[in-house]
Design brief:
By secondary structure, this protein is α/β, with parallel strands linked by helices. The protein has seven helices and eleven strands. Strands 1-2-3-4-5-6-9-11 form an eight-stranded mixed sheet. It has a three-stranded antiparallel sheet with strand order 8-7-10, with helices on one face.
Length: about 260
């Protein structure tokens, strides 16, 4: 069963890739707003509706301040403060300002905590988003395939003119200050086979990774319920095989089971 995050500030939760993570949801708490409509999204499909209004910058700052103060008083330090939630966090019109507020509050309460953004990469062409992402510790950007047909099948971009080539050109502008996050999976969707672990997929993927040159790559597979029920988890052994090919090219790769 898929689910939504019903709070602006949620957790902390134990993240497979980031440790103890305090979440920030900049999207509605009763709907989903995203530029992708991924067949594996834990929040479900976009068709459920966008819900009510986005939280205001002042509201996010106030609730984050309250939560961080409470965690400090309780002696509960987060490893990371993570922008995630019900869709694409960088769609918030005041995303850059919220990032500035979060950095300020992090420095006040838990200066050793990292700040992360989990983004599907589709808005990095916006100057204000690009500059905000450069300020944070873990700029985690999605790339599930280097093949357009696979991205359109798995991630289902809302933008009809989306291409991997144009996305890669935007990601290259970070000059390595980014982490690529990739979901490996297989199965079926609307009668079409889904598998981004094939030799053709991996060869194309490594090629664009070398162009982007990220500081790290995070690979993982299914861990929660998905809206498409005909999907299957890829084993850690298989992902490690792919990771070893990337490591052979000099990249740091983290594999999550």
């Amino acid at each position: 069963m898929t689910f939504l995050f019903h709070q602006i500030i949620f957790g902390p939760v134990k993240s497979r890739r980031l440790g103890v993570s305090l979440g920030i949801n900049l999207l509605p708490t009763d709907g989903k707003v995203c530029t992708f409509d991924c067949i594996y999204c834990e929040c479900g499909y976009n068709e459920q509706g966008s819900g009510s209004a986005l939280p205001r910058r002042e509201q996010v700052r106030r609730e984050l301040n309250i939560k961080l103060r409470a965690m400090l008083e309780a002696g509960e330090a987060p490893d990371v403060i993570t922008f995630a939630g019900n869709g694409e966090p960088t769609l918030h019109p005041e995303f850059a300002g919220v990032v500035d507020d979060t950095i300020e509050l992090r420095d006040l309460y838990f200066p050793n905590a990292k700040i992360s953004v989990l983004s599907n990469s589709t808005t990095v062409r916006k100057p204000e988003v690009f500059e905000a992402l450069k300020k944070i510790d873990n700029n985690i950007l999605k790339l599930d395939s280097a093949i357009d047909a696979t991205v359109k099948l798995v991630d289902r971009p809302v933008q009809q003119n989306f291409t991997v080539k144009s996305l890669v050109e935007e990601l290259k502008k970070f000059e390595g200050k980014l982490i690529i996050q990739t979901m490996f999976l297989r199965g079926m969707h609307k009668g079409q086979e889904v598998d981004n672990t094939t030799e053709e997929e991996v060869k194309a993927y490594i090629k664009v990774i070398k162009e982007i040159n990220p500081k790290q790559i995070m690979v993982y597979s299914l861990d929660r319920d998905t809206p498409e029920k005909s999907l299957h988890k890829v084993s850690v052994k298989e992902m490690e095989h792919i990771a070893d090919k990337l490591r052979a090219e000099g990249f740091s790769v983290v594999v999550s089971g």
